[in-house]
Amino acid sequence: MSIPKNLASKYTRLLTLWPTDPLRQFTFRTVLQKRLTKHNESASRTQATTTTTPPAPAPAPVSPQQQASEVVQINALFSLVEDRYATKYKLSEKYTRPRANPEYYARLMRELDEAPTRSRFSNWVRSWKGYLRWQ
């Protein structure tokens, strides 16, 4: 099944806009890339025919329902990339800075930013700092 060129161009644009995730080994970006290359390979197999090899079976054309489904999925992904929901539904201060622990989310974000750049030794030291309590 090959996707139309306009959908493929939307997928490639989405790949350029999708943020990288340094904490995960397999990111959503790689899943999208594999999906796009799978569609491109199936399309290129039908175009490349040689005399020595028998022709590969033609991929099934995309039905209008499948194409509409792809468009809906792409629009949903673009809404996530553009943070439409974060701007539409803003969180109030009482959720982002709770009274019991107002610096929790700030420390969590700082920890997530530092985590990919830490070495194994520094991870080991940080874990032992958690076990030992100096009074």
Describe the structure.
It contains 7 helices and no strands. The chain has 135 residues and is mostly helical. It has 2 domains: 5-88, no CATH class; 93-131, no CATH class. The longest helix has 20 residues, at 28-47. The chain is elongated and about 70 Å long. It starts with a helix and ends with a helix.
Please give the count of helices.
Answer: 7
- As a percent range, the share of strand residues is under 5%
Q: Runs with pLDDT <50, length 5+?
A: none
User: Would you report the number of β strands?
Assistant: 0
Query: What structural class do helix, strand and pairing data support?
Result: mainly alpha
User: Taking Cα atoms only, what radius of gyration do you get, to the nearest Å?
Assistant: 23 Å
Choose one word for the global shape. elongated
Q: Which series of helices and strands comes N to C?
A: HHHHHHH
The N- and C-terminal alpha carbons lie at a distance of 66 Å
Main sheet makeup: none
Number of spatially distinct domains: 2
Mean pLDDT: 82
Share of helical residues: 55-70%
What tags apply to this protein structure?
mainly alpha; Cbp6; 2 domains; elongated; 135 residues; 7 helices
Q: What is this structure, in a nutshell?
A:
By secondary structure, this protein is mainly alpha-helical. 61% of the residues lie in helices and 0% in strands.
